[in-house]
Specification:
By secondary structure, the protein is mostly helical. The protein contains 20 helices and 19 strands. It starts with 17 loop residues before the first helix and ends in a 12-residue tail after the last helix. Bound molecules: 1-deoxymannojirimycin.
């Protein structure tokens, strides 16, 4: 190879004198010091900081469904031109708690029963009016009549007797789950009040970086669970915190998906269960803060948003600045309700546009890949998964249909179309006879099923009845088979808890073959499917399987000050991850409680659960638009 001499530069020492070299070295060392110092100002999750600085605050595992292998923890700085980097979390302080008169179930129910038809209201409906109605929610004060909504429910939300069954063993199990919730809550309250999650081993709080400086994720995620369990003192504490201390004026980097499913979902459910107006006000205000994420050439939102400045960007780990299917596809239920409550159609328009983009684009073999460019509207990679990165997109299609009182035909068509493609390309049977959902990478199957994918038993179950008549039994059978496989992933471990991912290759079946797939972080998906399958079939095995999970959680995850995830489900010498995830309170314990309750506690005839298990009512348009709705609520 020939080295050419640069003009004016001598070959020896690039023509620098000793003093020049010294100045250059000084400048270089200054630069290095500056860069290293800057690491201290980066958010906790940034990879460089995790590499160079102490690891004590880093999370060993991933959380939500849009994430894979710790991906979601890596919030990246804005990359796109013209975007200002966010400043990090706001320094919101927990305000002092002022005691308010507490609310009991009875009081709330009584208040709701009174004044039903007398209220002056504008009819709520599924908003589809033109964009000329676009306005801030404050221009449409109080247009939703809560009492009217209540009159349209077929069953009382809490059932006839709070959902208590006539079977003493089931009731005892239900009480046990309630005790677990109280224990988890009390410890959160004691050691982590106002923080996002409890660290039960170190007995402190965790803020994390998924919620853009919003605090109290465990409180918001627990509101409805505490309420349906009748833990009213605890519910009142939570409610009071929301009233006095939930500060939405944060200025940090948030996951649009996580804020939506936990905060928007949690506040919506709290509103629909209790009728407390401040929940509605807060949730609409928060919803408006999420809207700038949709300002992209296609209207497909980016994954990360600064709640203060409204700048948004894509996850640094998502290929080529793409948005994630499970993230932009998991907004529909909440956004429809935001329009319903605010009477502002903008929320509905945003999610309807996502549908439009998805309907227009070519789908490989009818499948929906996990990565889509918000700029071009094209798929970025052909990775398809019913687990992480894809999961709740499918869930929200069937639930959108059900929540629309079966009027959203578009969602129905998309759901059954997607399910057909999934069955044709992803569903597999192992040599040992277990049915599972593989992942698809550009036509090549990866015989792995994530814990996250285990929600699909329940999803296929609730959608079975609305499929083609000749396919209904088949769907119910498929749902049962998948739930059985997921149960197997639990029974084949020493702890009787399931791993983060299990495989069907190298001779193994339904077991984790890789070291970093062996953890369990208190996830709900397997129990979620037990709950749905119980309601659909009343096969007692689902309650038994749920009880096995309760015992395993008690034995391996309960520690002195809360519940913790474990690092290896295959060993009995527990290594705890020191994290009580907020979804444990919102989902895992709620689904267990529902499993041991009567079907009329949050009846599936009236409610759909968002992907964080927050119940949202079915919008029964025919009833809501009836000028004089009859009280269809069954007396308690
Ligand atoms: C929850 O936050 C939601 O269920 C989400 O859809 C995926 N997973 C976590 C719990 O595992």
């Amino acid at each position: 190879m020939v080295f050419r001499k640069l003009p004016g530069v001598s070959a020896s020492g690039m023509g620098l004198r000793l003093s020049q070299k010294f100045v250059f070295l000084l400048f270089l060392s200054g630069l290095v010091t500056l860069c290293f110092g800057a690491l201290f100002f980066l958010p906790d999750s940034v990879r460089l900081k995790r590499i160079f600085l102490s690891k004590t605050e880093t999370q060993p595992v991933t959380v939500g469904s849009g994430s894979e292998n710790d991906a979601r923890e890596h919030l990246k700085r804005p990359k796109e031109q013209g975007m200002t980097p966010a400043k990090g979390e706001s320094s919101t302080k927990l305000k002092s708690l002022i005691r308010k008169p507490s609310v009991s179930h009875e009081a709330t129910e009584e208040r709701l029963a009174g004044g039903k038809a007398q209220e002056d209201f504008t009819l709520p409906r599924l908003i589809t009016e033109s964009a000329s109605m676009k306005a801030s929610s404050s221009d449409h004060p109080d247009t939703f009549s809560y009492n009217k909504f209540k009159g349209c429910l077929l069953k009382p939300p809490l059932g006839r007797d709070g959902g208590q069954t006539s079977d003493p063993t089931t009731n005892e199990r239900r009480e046990k789950v309630k005790e677990m919730m109280k224990f988890a809550w009390d410890n959160y309250k004691r050691y982590a009040w106002g923080k996002n999650e409890l660290r039960p081993l170190t007995k402190n709080g965790h803020i994390g970086n998924m919620f853009g400086g919003l605090k109290g994720a465990s409180i918001i995620d627990s509101l409805d669970t505490l309420y349906i369990m009748g833990l009213m003192e605890e519910y009142n504490d939570a409610k009071e915190w929301v009233q006095t201390s939930l500060d939405l004026n944060s200025n940090g980097e948030a996951s649009l998906f996580e804020v939506n499913i936990r905060y928007v979902g949690g506040l919506l459910s709290a509103y629909y269960l209790t009728g407390e107006e401040f929940y509605k006000k807060k949730v609409v205000e928060l919803g408006e803060k999420l809207l700038p994420a949709f300002n992209t050439p296609t209207g497909i939102p980016r994954g990360v948003i600064n709640l203060g400045s409204g700048t948004s960007w894509s996850w640094g780990w998502a290929s080529a600045g793409s948005s994630i299917l499970a993230e932009f596809g998991t907004l529909h239920l909440e956004f429809i309700h935001l329009s319903e409550l605010s009477r502002n159609p903008i929320f509905t328009e945003k999610v309807m546009n996502i549908r439009k983009v998805l309907n227009k684009i070519e789908k490989p073999h009818g499948l929906y890949p996990n990565f889509l460019s918000p700029v071009s509207g094209n798929w970025v990679q052909h990775h398809v998964s019913i687990g992480g990165l894809g999961d709740s997109f499918y869930e929200y299609l069937i639930k959108s249909y059900l929540m629309s009182d079966k009027s959203d035909d578009d969602a129905k068509k998309m759901y059954y179309g997607a399910l057909e493609a999934i069955e044709a390309n992803l569903v597999q049977k192992s040599p040992g006879g277990l049915t599972y959902m593989a992942e698809w990478r550009g036509g090549i199957l990866d015989h792995k099923m994530g814990h996250l994918a285990c929600f699909s038993g329940g999803m296929i179950g609730i959608g079975a009845d609305d499929g083609e008549p000749e396919k209904r039994q088949h769907y119910l059978d498929l749902a049962a088979e998948i739930t059985h496989t997921c149960h197997e992933s639990y029974t084949r471990s020493a702890t009787k808890l399931g791993p983060e991912a299990f495989r069907f290759d190298s001779g193994g079946e339904a077991t984790a073959t890789r070291l970093n797939d062996r953890y369990y972080i208190l996830r709900p998906e397997v129990i979620e499917s037990y709950m749905y399958m119980w309601r659909l079939t009343h096969d007692p095995k689902y309650r038994e399987w749920g009880w096995e999970a309760v015992q395993a959680l008690e034995q391996h995850c309960r520690v002195e000050s809360g519940f913790s995830g474990i690092r290896d489900v295959y060993t009995l010498t527990a290594s705890h991850d020191n994290m009580q995830q907020s979804f444990f309170l919102s989902e895992t314990l709620k689904y267990l409680y529902l499993l041991f309750s009567d079907d009329d506690l949050l009846s599936l005839e009236d409610w759909v659960f968002n992907t964080e298990a927050h119940p949202l009512p079915i919008i029964r348009r025919s009833c809501l638009e009836d000028p004089a709705p009859q009280d269809k609520t069954v007396s308690e």
